[in-house]
Automatic annotation (TrEMBL):
Protein name stated in the entry: Dipeptidase
Transmembrane regions: 40-61
Reaction(s) catalysed by this chain's protein: an L-aminoacyl-L-amino acid + H2O = 2 an L-alpha-amino acid
Broadest EC class assigned to this enzyme: hydrolase
Lineage: Eukaryota, Fungi, Dikarya, Ascomycota, Pezizomycotina
């Protein structure tokens, strides 16, 4: 240290001596003066750099590398991992709670997100849980007949699309209202930037393609509003495919419909992630066969461990990995322990994560809690604050920090980025928006006497609501 300081002081002295010599020549003329001034400025700059090095070098020389973390200190390791990698949850239903209890009104004293909520998610729980990103579910239930309690016919008009738009609206307003902690994002790059900014990246998923009005045009509009994944079915069949709940009820698993194949193609073209949570096993297999992009399970589990038909069997887990997708494990008691839901604990969730990781690798597993979408969660995973404990238990099982970075957020960010790349390629190839429509759709027009564009249109137009051609 003394040698370095002495050397810097000597160089600085030489520079000053040189500048004094240069000043003696200033009177000789304007040209010489100009050169002398440049030399003087150069010397001062160099002197500043050297002096800075003299001042800084003692500090840098005394710095030591951070002490290595004890491999058995799982809490410290978890804090380090989640401080440097975003933990991104694939599914949280808080917007639906806001709809049901506040009718989307959050600008009042009733919505105590800052000071605490009885449900799974609030400010303190988010911070304690070291949450780094969240797909907020813009969920609206499958429409039911008020008398029979059965699913309404697929072509029956409902308010589902309107309600979905309101869910998107409240999600965005919620994120904006608490913008000191959240940042809305519609691409994978922004998700990383939000985490770097100390914010929880906030993204939109739609939990059921019954919410898009049986229309690919509506799908495109929801994409434009920021939705980045759609669960292909919820607990009802739709015009695109078969739900797991249908098969559970003893009905046939028909997989994707022909219109569902068009839906998959348009989702790929848009760059929207296909979510296979809630769908039947044959629908899972059909989507995996057709999709050009990786798929996700935003909140699911391993069928090998829990014989629940909305969980993915091993062949589907393998196909998902081969496609480059991700299986995000849920926290729903009745699915994790269908034999005894009350006995479900955090260890059951660890079991499902471990099964997927051991079967297909740590590159294809993540977390999708379903917080605020289920009345009861496993013991040890009571709310959003408990994510670190989940990571600690995975460490205790033998997971490395690198594997847990993938699990926490790197996997879903990789999948999202790949889906975006596939869309860029498809669009660069010139593929146009898909104009297919559901064959079961009822078309009507007004009865006004509008002009026609083509001579052969009479008798072929959409009929009027009075039945006129």
């Amino acid at each position: 240290m003394e040698t370095l300081n002495t050397r810097a002081a000597a160089v600085a002295s030489d520079i000053l001596t040189s500048q004094e010599s240069n000043q003696a020549v200033v009177l000789s003329g304007a040209v010489t003066a100009s050169r002398s001034q440049r030399g003087w400025l150069f010397g001062i700059g160099t002197l500043g750099i050297l002096l800075a090095s003299v001042l800084i070098s003692p500090w840098t020389a005394t710095q030591e590398a951070p002490a290595p973390i004890d491999p058995t200190d799982y809490a410290a390791r978890t804090k380090h991992v989640l401080s440097t990698t975003p933990l991104i949850d694939g599914h949280n239903d808080l917007p639906y709670l806001i709809r049901n209890e506040l009718k989307h009104q959050i600008y009042n004293d009733k919505f105590t997100f800052n000071t605490g909520l009885l449900s799974n998610t609030d400010r303190q729980k988010v911070r304690d849980g070291m949450l780094g990103g969240q797909f907020w579910s813009c969920y609206i239930h499958c429409p039911k007949d008020s008398e029979t309690k059965e699913d309404v016919p697929l072509d029956e008009p409902t308010w589902t699309l309107r309600d979905t738009l309101e869910q998107i609206d409240i999600t965005k307003r919620f994120v904006n209202e608490f913008s000191d902690i959240f940042q809305f994002c519609s691409n994978s790059t922004c998700a990383r930037e939000a985490f770097a900014n100390g914010k929880v990246g906030s993204f939109i998923g739609i939990e059921g393609a019954h919410q898009i009005g049986n229309s690919l045009a509506s799908l495109r509009q929801l994409y434009d509003l920021g939705a980045r994944y759609i669960t292909t079915t919820h607990n009802c069949d739709n015009v695109f495919g078969t739900a797991a709940s249908t098969v559970t009820a003893g009905r046939e698993d028909k997989g994707l419909t022909p219109f569902g194949e068009e839906y998959v193609a348009e989702m790929n073209r848009l760059g929207m992630m296909l979510d296979l949570s809630h769908v039947s096993h044959e629908t899972m297999r059909d989507v995996l066969r057709l999709s050009e992009a990786p798929v996700i399970f935003s909140h699911t589990g391993a069928y090998a461990l829990s014989k629940v038909l909305r969980f993915a069997p091993d062949d589907v887990l393998k196909a998902t990995a081969e496609k480059g997708g991700i299986i995000m494990i849920t926290f729903v008691n009745r699915f994790l322990r269908p034999d005894n839901p009350d006995a479900a604990t955090i260890h059951d969730v660890v079991d499902h994560i471990w099964h997927v990781a051991q079967l297909v690798g740590w590159d294809y597993v993540g977390v999708g809690s379903d917080f605020d979408g289920t009345p009861v969660t496993p013991l040890g995973l009571e709310d959003v604050s408990k994510y670190p404990r989940l990571v600690e238990l995975l460490m205790e099982r033998g997971a490395t920090d690198e594997q847990l970075r993938k699990f926490a957020g790197e996997n879903i960010l990789r999948v999202w980025a790949e889906v975006e790349k596939v869309a860029e390629r498809i669009q660069a190839e010139g593929r146009k928006p898909n104009e297919a429509y559901w064959e079961g759709r009822t078309w009507v027009r007004s009865d006004m006497n509008a002009p026609i564009m083509f001579r052969d249109s009479l008798g072929k137009r959409v009929p009027s609501y009075l039945g006129n051609p």
